[in-house]
Amino acid sequence: MPSSSESLHLLRMFSWISPAFPTGSYAYSHGLEWSVDNGDITDVASLVIWVKALLYYGSLRSDMIFLRQAWAASSSQEIRQVAEFACASAASRERYEETVNQGEAFLKATDIWALFKKDPDMADIRWPLPVAQGILFRRNHMEQDLSTISGAYVAVSGIISAALRLIPLGQSDSLKAMKQLEHHIIRSAAKTRGKKLEDTGSGCFRSDLASMQHEIQQTRLFRT
């Protein structure tokens, strides 16, 4: 039986990784909207292949490394370095807006728990979502591996939610996609253990280009 404090920390995590947590995630597709419109993703199988690539070789892999580095940061200077590096690594304007808008909304919402007090010298920092998650998950006493898996789960579930509306998928197909990706979330998170900022990067050029093409897409349901 977990202790009262462990149970409390777990309940907070349930709130923070819930699709209902107010980060505005429903408004973003991570470039998926253009990819669906272009015919790259048409069903559960192609969606799973796409997300697997992001987890092992693309933006989601980099985000897990950013989360780990933010979790491990021991000073304001280190936090700043991770946040600025993550911002500079965004593949497009929309990717940048997606991560900082959600990250800053996440920090604003978690202010209720008063776990992270920003120093005055952090006033000009923009806050990518995985960086904000890493900081708060650490202060909620969640260990690094579980924090990384939780952050990846949030990202994957957001993409699947967008696919549900765009392809479209039924609820059962969305759950099938999530089930197929569970072990890949765990494995890809494990592969980022011990990685540094210089280990980030993306080999998923089609996804990165999709986020750029979305900026000029004529009809759009999502902001990215």
From TrEMBL:
Signal peptide interval: none
Gene Ontology CC entries for this record: cytoplasm
Keywords: Chaperone, Cytoplasm, Nickel insertion
UniProt subcellular location: Cytoplasm
Any one GO molecular-function label of the UniProt entry: nickel cation binding
Domain of life: Bacteria
Keyword Flavoprotein attributed: no
Main location: cytoplasm
Record bears the keyword NAD: no
Family classification: Belongs to the UreF family.
Subunit (UniProt): UreD, UreF and UreG form a complex that acts as a GTP-hydrolysis-dependent molecular chaperone, activating the urease apoprotein by helping to assemble the nickel containing metallocenter of UreC. The UreE protein probably delivers the nickel.
Biological role: Required for maturation of urease via the functional incorporation of the urease nickel metallocenter.
Entry protein name: Urease accessory protein UreF
Lineage: Bacteria, Pseudomonadati, Pseudomonadota, Alphaproteobacteria, Sphingomonadales
Gene that produces this protein: ureF
